[in-house]
Specification:
The chain is α/β, with parallel strands linked by helices. It has helices at 22-38, 60-69, 88-101, 116-121, 129-144, 184-192, 204-224, 245-252, 259-267, 277-285, 300-314, 330-348, 353-364, 366-390; strands spanning 7-12, 43-46, 75-82, 106-111, 149-152, 157-161, 174-179, 195-198, 233-241, 296-298, 319-323. The protein is built from 14 helices and eleven strands.
Amino acid sequence: MNPRPLRFGVFLAPFHPADENPTEQIHRDLALVKHLDEYGYDEAWIGEHHSGGYEIIPSPEVFIAHAAAITQRIRLGTGVVSLPYHNPLMLVDRIMQLDHQTRGRVMLGCGPGQLVTDAFMLGIEPNEQRRMMNEALEVIVPLLRGETVTRKTDWFELNEAQSQLPPVQWPGPEIAVASAISPSGAHAAGRHGLGLLSLAASGPEGYEQLPKHWQVCEETAAKSGATVDRANWRCVVPMHIAETRDQARADMEHGTLRLAAYMEALGGTRPAYASSTERMLEEWTGPGLPIFGKLTMGTPEDAIEVIESLREKSGGFGTILFLVHDCANPEATRKSYELIARSVMPAVNNSNQYRHRSMEWATKNAGTFMPALVGGIQKAITEYEQDRVEQGGEGTQWVAAAPGDDD
C-alpha cells in the first residue's frame, strides 16, 4: 500500500515591499492563488496583520471569499487569525459562512498574534496573548462543532452562544494552531486535537525543535483525551526554484534587500548583513533570517533534498507550505511554483512509479511482444492475399514493417 502523499501549498503572509502599488500587490496575490490552483497545489494560507507596512492583508477572511470565487479545488486557510483580536463568536460566524461560500474548502489557522505593534494598537498586553488564545480556543472548537457555549472571561463574554449555520465539512472546518520556537502552539494543538502549523520549520532552532514539538503535541493530546494526526501537521519553508542555481540567485536579487527595511521596522535597527544583496542572500541561505527562516535557493533537486530532510527530521508531516516572500519578480515567482509542480511534487510523492513499472515491464518483455506483433501483421497479410487469390485477383508483394517504421 502506498504511503499518504505529501500535500503542497503556500503560506501567504503576505510580504510586500512598501515601494509598490498595494492594490496591484493584493490582486497579484489573488492571481497567484488562482495560478496555484491550476497547477494542483492543495492549500493556501492567508495572514492577518495590522501594522508594519509590509504584511498588508488585515482580513484573511475577505481575501479567502474572493479567492474561493476564482479557484476550483485549492483549500484556503487563515494563516493565521490572531485570536486575542477577535470576539470568538464573531470569528466562528465568519468561518462558518466561508465554509458555505467555499463549499467546504476553508480552514481556520489561529495563533496568539505575532506583531507586537498590532497588540499595542489594540491595547493588548503581549504577555497575555497566549493565555487569551487558549481561552478563545476553548470556545471556538465547540462552537465550530455546533455546540452551545456560555463563557465569561476578562476580555469576552458569551451567553448561550451558537452558530446559526451548520458546517459543510464534518464535523466542522479544520483548525490548526501556529507554532514557532516555543511549545505553546504544540501544547494548544494537542490539548484540543487540532492541526499544527510549524512556521519556523526551516530555521536552525525551529528545525531542531520539530520532533520535540510533535512529541509535546502527542503527549498533551493523550493527557487531554484527544487525538492528533501527523497528516494535519504543516511545515513552512521559504524557497525559490529555477532551472539552474545561478538563475535562482539572479531571480532573488530582484527584491531580497528590500526585506531589510521591514526587519529594521520590526527590530529598530538595520541588520549588518543587509549592506548588500550578496551578504543578505548568504545569511538567508546560511544560518537563516529571523521570521523568514533558512532559504532554499536552487533547482528542483535542491528542493527535493530539503523536503526529504524535513520529513526525516520531523518523523513525518502532512503538508509542506512555501513561504511567499515576493523577492523574485512575479514572472520568476510563478515559474518557481510551476517547476515545483512539474518536477518536485511527482518526485517527492513518487507519482510516476506505476508508469515506470509499466515501462520496465514492457521493456523486459519486448522479446516476447515484438515477435508476436510482427507475426500478427504477417498473418493478416497472408490471409488478405489468400482471400484476394480466391476471389480471382492477382497476388501482391507485402512486407511486414517493423513497429515504428514509416508506412
